[in-house]
Amino acid sequence: MRPTGVRTGRAGRLGRWVARARLSSLRTTFTVSFAAVAAAVTVLVGFLSYDAAARLVRVDQQTVFEGVVQDLLDEVRRKPLETADFATTRPDGGPRGELVRPGGTVVQVLGPDGAVVDRGRTPLPVDAADRPVAAARTAGRLVEHRDVDVGDDVYRVATVSLGGGRGAVQVAQEFSGTEDLLRDLQQRTVLLVGAVVIAAGLFGWWLARRITSRLVRLAGAAEDVARTGRLAIQVPVAGYDEVARLGRSFDRMLGRLAQSEDDQRRLVQDAGHELRTPLTSLRTNISILRRMDELPPAVREELVDDLAQESRELTDLVNELVALAAGQSGTEPQRRVALGDLADDVAVAARRRTGRAVTVRVSGDTVADGRPAALQRAMSNLVDNAAKFDRGGSGPIELVVTRADRDTVRVEVLDRGPGIAQEDLDRVFDRFYRAPDARSLPGSGLGLSIVREVATAHGGEPFAGRREGGGSVTGFTVTVTG
């Protein structure tokens, strides 16, 4: 049978391959989409540009030809002309020169019978429609032929009568050259569109690879966490776009999970250490119970008192651990809480439980978003702590709730007990910490650490100090949101 580690390794490699394949598919989709959009835009722009250019060239050439024909009509209608006036042998060019000059127009002269009497540089065809025009008595009679094939070229031909049966003049404009130019332009446009599409595809592939490469690294980090269970993995993050935000959020999530795991581990270790002492004492006393009949009455009574005291301490320790774990889980929903009203409830319960005088002072707006049960537990722990250390009852315990500023509500408990030693101020909120003077007193060392957890969960912080005139001041702050 193959080792489990081999199967796990292959499964991990398969999972990474599947993730890369999906990201590659995303990369391909992005590349194809980018190229398709670029192709659509380029084809549209190319088609519109070619159509506009072709239309402009054809219209311009047609306008030039129509202008030549109109000039010829005006000329023959203004004065009588003979075919000799359009002869190629005239040294001054005559009317023929005026017609040939714009756009390289071809001119051919027909006799009264429709026969060609003077050819131009390109012989033009004469059909049955041209002969009546040559014999026409009216000057300026016109017949126009479109797309006439002359050899390998295409011409547009117009025949204009000279009138009086003196013949006619044919003018022609070559259009095939223009069409060849437009076909060449069309081919160049197609090649340009193809080049742009290829370039867009390459650029899209490069851009998709650049974007998805960070997703690949992020997916690799997630797979490493799932495969190894280790949360202390560095997540590669670069840039400020959505992918970078995702990476930072994932990194913060891993950090929170790692911190939570570390807190749970330390809680279990510390709890195990603290539980060991009362459990050992219980086991010792229980073993002595086997010889209960041999013990003097005074020793029996002391043994029973020890068992009761140790049971209470063990119960308190377990309750504090449960409360601390529940506070860390943060399952209680948040809502608007009036901390002043919570302080009144805590004071009533503390008077009944301890028999001490507890006064409450509320100043300003003390409403904040929070978890009522957790906040009430934190206040109760502060009041109980003050009552425990102020054993002489030299003064009332004061529970003060004030609006410190626009964003902070301050909760503090003041007593007239022995106060907190200077060297203990920085550690009183540590988990399971008990000052040397307090080690003979009942308690688990978790009460003030719960206060710190509650304060941190509500955006505040705990504080402790010595009170002027004797005693101590302990408390926490809550950040006001909304």
UniProtKB/TrEMBL annotation:
Record field: transmembrane: 30-50, 190-208
CDD domains recorded: HAMP, HATPase, HisKA
InterPro entries associated with the record: HAMP_dom (IPR003660), HATPase_C_sf (IPR036890), HATPase_dom (IPR003594), His_kinase_dom (IPR005467), HisK_dim/P_dom (IPR003661), HisK_dim/P_sf (IPR036097), Sig_transdc_His_kin-like_C (IPR004358), TCS_sensor_his_kinase (IPR050428)
Domain HAMP: 209-262
Domain Histidine kinase: 270-482
Recorded superkingdom: Bacteria
Reaction equation(s) it catalyzes: ATP + protein L-histidine = ADP + protein N-phospho-L-histidine
Enzyme class of the recorded protein, top EC level: transferase
Alphabetized Pfam families for the sequence: HAMP, HATPase_c, HisKA
Keyword Cell cycle: no
EC code(s) of this entry: 2.7.13.3
Stretch list, region Disordered: 461-482
Transmembrane helix in keyword set: yes
Localization per record: Cell membrane
Keywords carried by this UniProt record: Kinase, Membrane, Phosphoprotein, Transferase, Transmembrane, Transmembrane helix, Two-component regulatory system
GO molecular function: kinase activity
PANTHER family for this protein: SENSOR HISTIDINE KINASE TRCS, SENSOR HISTIDINE KINASE YKOH
Protein name according to UniProt: histidine kinase
Native species: Streptomyces ortus
